[in-house]
Design goal:
single chain, Jelly Rolls, 1 helix, 16 strands
Length: 243
């Protein structure tokens, strides 16, 4: 049996039984990192909610909505963030986290989500303020239509695909990742589990804004049903220098 691993002149010794790991992304995944889905880009910030939800600011529309740190469901680890919408039709609940403005590069925003509702809408918004402009990018999954949507340059949700069904089952977290080309003020691509779509021809929403620089990440749950619905969120990852 031939030896495994790198060459004998490398910094890793050959092994006869096991294989060496030369991919740092794979090494991180094996060591328990939450960034196991797409793995591209350089991580700016990530949150698996293992230390609570103090990083997040609640944004609640209507009565009865709430953010809760829960140990009942998770993609990794023991806990997740639960968004509970209010009992009125169209109730919207969001969780906002602020970060410094990032240097110009392609940026990524990834989150995993689970619900037992057949009508829930799970979305994420990325707001970027550079001191003279406000850019906003967004992605949304609608369980009622099996559709994935992006936020267009006018601030409206536009369908990318309405043939992207995902399984609704307790414990199954699906993952969405959005990548934008900030230097060129455009979207780049969106990923939903094993599916992907190019968005490179679409412009980001932008407006004049002299607010001090910063980056805001918002996770949202909204239900058109006149009853409270739960959306569980886990493994939030914000990246820069996406390929």
């Amino acid at each position: 049996m031939s030896p495994h691993g790198g060459p004998d002149w490398g910094n890793r010794a050959k092994a006869d039984v096991v294989f060496g790991v030369q991919d740092l992304g794979e090494l991180a995944a094996r060591l328990g990192a939450i960034s196991t889905f797409h793995r591209a880009g350089k991580v700016v910030w990530q949150d698996g909610f293992e230390d609570g939800i103090n990083h997040w600011i609640a944004q609640v529309t209507g009565e009865g909505g709430a953010l809760t740190w829960v140990p009942t469901h998770s993609r990794n680890g023991a806990t997740s963030l639960r968004i509970t919408t209010g009992p009125t039709t169209g109730a919207l609940v969001g969780a906002l986290a602020w970060h410094p403005y990032q240097q110009l590069s392609k940026l990524g925003f990834e989150f995993s989500f689970m619900t037992l509702s057949s009508v829930m809408q799970a979305s994420a918004l990325l707001d970027l303020f550079n001191g003279s402009k406000h850019y906003q990018a967004g992605v949304l999954y609608n369980y009622a239509t099996d559709g994935i949507y992006y936020l267009d340059s006018t601030g409206a949700w536009v369908a990318v695909s309405t043939v992207a069904p995902i399984r609704v089952v307790e414990g199954l977290f699906n993952t969405l990742k959005l990548i934008i080309d900030l230097p060129n003020e455009k979207y780049k691509s969106v990923f939903l589990n094993h599916l992907s779509w190019s968005l490179s021809s679409y412009n980001l929403f932008q407006e004049t804004d002299t607010t001090a620089p910063g980056s805001g990440l918002t996770l949202q749950g909204q239900s058109p049903a006149a009853a409270s619905q739960d959306l569980y969120l886990d493994d939030i990852i914000f990246t820069q220098e996406e390929p």
